Amino acid sequence: MARTAHGFTLIELIVVMAIVALLAGITAPRYFASLERAKAASLRSSLAVMRDALDKYAADKGRHPDTLAQLVQDRYLRRVPEDPLTGSANSWITLPPAAGTDLPGQVADVRSGAAGRAPDGSLYADW
Asked: In its keyword annotation, does this UniProt entry include Transmembrane helix (predicted)?
């Protein structure tokens, strides 16, 4: 009587594992690059929303807010958004009005507190 073997040989398992490792090695860099692009897009969106709220606040009140929390208090924002790169709503860098501006207040613009470069090569802090 002949016995038939059931299962896989060690060589077959090694070949399959090598193929899986190769596919993972190809897709992982693309996955992480797409995560960085998504964070950058989210940062641009958050900055646009906050800058729009700052402009509306200045137009309505005749002055710039003193803090970002004041935008929430006066209902120009529901909440201060989280910086997608730092993971914190407290890492935003606020910029005062330019010299010669006739509107009082402390916050005329906002930037990310994240270090590093965007996928396009620009600094996050310059956005």
From this structure: yes
Question: Could you say which DSSP state residue 84 is in?
Answer: T
Compute the distance between CA of residue 127 and CA of residue 122 in angstroms, rounded to an integer. Answer: 8
Task: Tell me the Ramachandran region of residue 93: left when phi exceeds 0, alpha when psi lies from -120 to 50, beta otherwise.
Answer: beta
As a whole-number percent, the residues of the chain with pLDDT over 90 amount to 76
What secondary structure does DSSP assign to 47-65, as a single string? Answer: HHHHHHHHHHHHHHHSS--
Structure tokens at 6: 């059931």
Residue labelled with tokens 């910029």 = 95
- 85 within 8 A of 112, measured Cβ to Cβ: yes
- pLDDT, tens digit (0-9, with 9 covering 90-100), for 48-75: 999 999 999 999 999 999 999 999 999 9
Round to whole Å and give the CA distance between 21 and 41: 30
